[in-house]
Amino acid sequence: MFTPRRTTTAVGALLGAALLTAPVAAHATAAPPAAPGALAAAAATGLDDPAKKDIAMRIVSSAENSSLDWKAQYKYIEDIGDGRGYTAGIIGFCSGTGDMLDLVEYYTKVKPGNVLAKYLPALRKVDGSDSHAGLDPNFTRDWAKAAQDAEFRKAQDHERDRVYFNPAVGQGKSDGVGTLGQFIYYDAIVMHGDGGDSTSFRNIRKRALAKAKPPAQGGNETAWLNAFLDARVWAMRQEEAHSDTSRVDTAQRVFLKKGNLGLDTPLEWKVYGDSYRIG
């Protein structure tokens, strides 16, 4: 199982920026209040539509876990030798990049005394390294045990959305890109995070801005997404663990070349030489 990972994340600023840069209509006419369910449905107009979100998770899982069955990955955990310690769960939370620590802290907040709570001191100490100190020999066993708990699965969903999915979709909508563009952002932030390093999501986007403009700034959507993917490939090639760019070249580029900006099924792609299809 080949599972390339991302760098440390710090995405709060990204979400804030997306909200700050979102267009605001002037002199809007007040509308009658809508029911909460209607508001949720209206807001889900891109990758946050439940069906599209499931597609996104399946495509990412094809690259991260060589499987379309993303819901089988809650229990997944291993050290893949990429310098990030243990990689685990539905989005590849890493003991060395802080997001696994955040996840276990959140899980312990909603369910004190859970089977992973005792590892919090060790997770704090190994953050930023590939060390297993204080985690071995039973952490992997206890992770799999925790994955049988619905609250832990909900915690993984919560942290995936908070740290990766919602910021990516928010920035995508702010930039005026559709469902495919929002997915391209999501896959990038999953792998690279949004820290201050040159290969982070925000700096991939900054690099793309030197070549093209997003639709919200008057640019062509296809040209912008090609520029973003060019910058993404550059970032991937800066690190050996990410140097196979097939998740861009034979997946995202394929959708873009076909003009499938809505990420509509059927979808066919390849990752690391393996073929996948949805629909």
Automatic annotation (TrEMBL):
First-tier enzyme category under EC: hydrolase
CDD domains (alphabetical): chitosanase_GH46
E.C. code: 3.2.1.132
Domain of life of the native organism: Bacteria
Main location (coarse class): secreted
Cellular compartment(s): Secreted
PROSITE patterns the record matches: CHITOSANASE_46_80
Pfam families assigned: Glyco_hydro_46
Catalytic activity: Endohydrolysis of beta-(1->4)-linkages between D-glucosamine residues in a partly acetylated chitosan
Keyword Secreted: yes
Keywords assigned by UniProt, alphabetized: Glycosidase, Hydrolase, Secreted, Signal
Signal peptide region: 1-28
UniProt family annotation: Belongs to the glycosyl hydrolase 46 family.
Protein purpose: Aids in the defense against invading fungal pathogens by degrading their cell wall chitosan.
Name of the molecule in the record: Chitosanase
